[in-house]
Amino acid sequence: MATSPMVYTIVLLSSLGMAWLVLREKVAKLDAGIAYHVAAAQRDQRKARFYGQSVWIAIAASSLGLIVTSVIATSGGKSTPTSQMCVGLAYGLGLWGLMVISSVWSQVGKRASLTNADGKSLIPHNARTGHEEQR
Questions:
Q1: How far apart are CA 89 and CA 43, in angstroms?
Q2: Fewer beta carbons below 10 Å: N end or C end of the chain?
Q3: In whole angstroms, what is the distance from residue 92 CA to residue 135 CA?
Q4: What is the DSSP string of 21-64?
């Protein structure tokens, strides 16, 4: 009995998605042994580095998935279990990349839309330190 490509897609997408979320939670934890403000600054740096690297890895994964799917689609051969597996895995890899990109950009949008205590103006950002300005 042949396995549907969608099974491979769902398995790969679920596995990569869970792994990315576990890594994200690990990066977002505060270090317990140091002062809160230092731990928060270090956490913010780790998160920024992680999100930046995640986007580039996700772009590469999506591109690779698209290329593999395109090559298999244009090969014109008959559908074999191996080609179905490759299509499913490539499609899952591409979907995972898009999921990561959308997740990161939604976090960027959420952060950019935070408002001050007045509820109207956006939080000013100090480009030199990477932290909010104190008033």
A1: 33
A2: N
A3: 47
A4: HHHHHHHHPPPTTS-HHHHHHHHHHHHHHHHHHHHHHHHHHHHH
Identity of the amino acid at 87: V
Q: CA torsion 41→116→104→106, rounded to 10°? A: 160
* CB distance 45 to 60 below 8 Å: no
Residue 110, pLDDT score: 82
Q: Are 91 and 69 in contact (CB under 8 A)?
A: yes
Token pair for 133: 């300005």
Biggest CA–CA distance in the chain, Å, is 67
pTM of the model: 0.77
Mean pLDDT by 10 residues, the chain (135 residues): 83 94 92 87 91 94 93 82 89 94 88 71 57 51
- Contact between residue 65 and residue 91 where contact means Cβ atoms under 8 Å apart: yes
